[in-house]
Structures are given as structure tokens and as C-alpha cells.
Amino acid sequence: MELPEDAYPAPSDVIAYMKRRAKDWKWATFRQYQASLVCRYEIEFERNRDPLFQQTAEEIRSLPSTDCRSNRDPGHTSSRKRKGIPRRDYDVLVANLANPARASDYSKRAALWLMAGLATGLRPCEWENARLSEDGRTLNVLNAKATNGRATGISRVVPVDADDFPVVRAHIESLRELLASGHEFSVIQKGCTQAIRRTCAALWPGDDKRTYALYSARHQFSANAKAIASAEEVAALLGHRSTRTARRHYAPRRSAWSEFRQVQTAKPTASMQAPIRRSTPRNG
């Protein structure tokens, strides 16, 4: 299958852009963009079996990071952002996004997305194929990073608390509605991302640390989970095989909301925890 001439951006342009910008990014930033793009093209390949997408994913995965800046270099704006979102900011942000008097259609959907993300910890791109079980107690998710042994398998089962079920179902129905009307998932995600960015800029002008995103909900889910669950349980919920990844790359336990230090939430089953690889932190 050939892409339309006006398709944008072309896979070759994406690869060229990654190569060109590598020298401007830290290794961690490069890896984040690299993983996101690989995930996107692998999803496209699974959808239509066009080998171009599989080839592009492999080329992006093999890009070297040797030209990246050291992680010790002073950070740019993106690296100064908070991982996670404080409860007060979350409440204000969701309330403004959902305000029927001022919110756009994407703003309201972004509010749902943040709430569902906080309840489940899914990566934004994983919602495209997420399915609720018939009883509504679990969410079946295709792992976005199921390559090179990084995930617990092709898919994972995420428990859904009874109190969170209505918002998770509403978010999935919101996505299905737009997808059924012909919207691409990437367009929906972009619309919600932009709605959050605009709202943050209006609420906290000039404050880079309060420029939140859809992924902020996953970070906060991680922090909240770390306050009440073991390292293996947190890794299973996030879809990572290694506890080290969940420990190092997500919001820390100290960022957990206070109520999660006392309240128990749904936890993964023993079968979910079985593939988790324990990693011992260095220096204690």
C-alpha cells in the first residue's frame, strides 16, 4: 500500500527528523520519542498489515542514541515538567476542561481521558484497543511496549475499581463514538492534548512545571500505586516486566496523593505478577 502524496509526515521524514534532532536531545528524551513512534507504527501495521509501517518501526527502533546530549546537561522545558499532577492542580484542571459553559468538545473528552488514565494507568496510545470485560471489573489492554522483553506479554489485564468503572466506560464510549464517525485515533489524542495545553496555559501562564499532559495521569497513577502496593504490583499494573523501569521512569511515591496512603485499591492477580523481574536499587 502506498501513502497518498499529501500524507504528512512521510515515514522517511520522521526518521530523518529523529536523526537530525538526536544531538539536541538528552538520551532519555530521545528514547521516549523513539518508543512512542515505534508504538504508533506497530499499531498501524497491526491495523492494515502494510509492511511500510513495520519497516519504519524497525528503522526507528534501530536509530543510535550516541549523538544525544548527556543526561547531566541542564534540562530544557520538557525535562523540568512535573511527573504526575498534584491533587489540587488535577481538580482545577479537570473542572475547567469539563466546564460546559467554556469547554470545547475536545476539552470535555480530555477531562474524561485524564480521569480514566488516573484510574487505570494506561499509556495514552493504549486506549485505542482497550476493552472492558463483560462484568466491568477489568480492562483488557494491548501492551504498547511488548518488544525486547520489556513488557509482561502482548497484553495485560488491569483491574478497575467499582467507583472508577463509570468514568472508564464513559471514556471508552467517547473514543468509540469519534472513531465510528471516521476520526483517526491520533487526531483524537492530539485534540485532547492541545485542549489540556491551552487550559494549563490559561490557568497557570508562564509556569512550565504546570504544563500537564495526558501522560501525567499515568505518572500520578504510578505514584499513588507506589504508596499502597509492592514494586512487583506496580510494575504489573503499568505493564512493565522490570520493577526498575517503574521505579526510575515514573512519578515517585512521595508524589502520591494523601488519600492513597490509607485506602486500598484493586491489585493485580498472582498470575499477572509472575513475569515481573525484581530489580534491586543501587546504593540502597
From TrEMBL:
The keyword Methyltransferase is assigned to this record: no
GO terms of biological process kind: DNA integration; DNA recombination
GO molecular function: DNA binding
Keywords (A to Z) from UniProt: DNA recombination
Domain of life: Bacteria
Cross-referenced Gene3D superfamilies: Intergrase catalytic core (1.10.443.10)
Disordered as annotated region, ranges: 63-83, 263-284
InterPro entries, per database record: DNA_brk_join_enz (IPR011010), Integrase-like_cat_sf (IPR013762)
Composition bias, Polar residues: 263-272
This protein's name: Phage integrase family protein
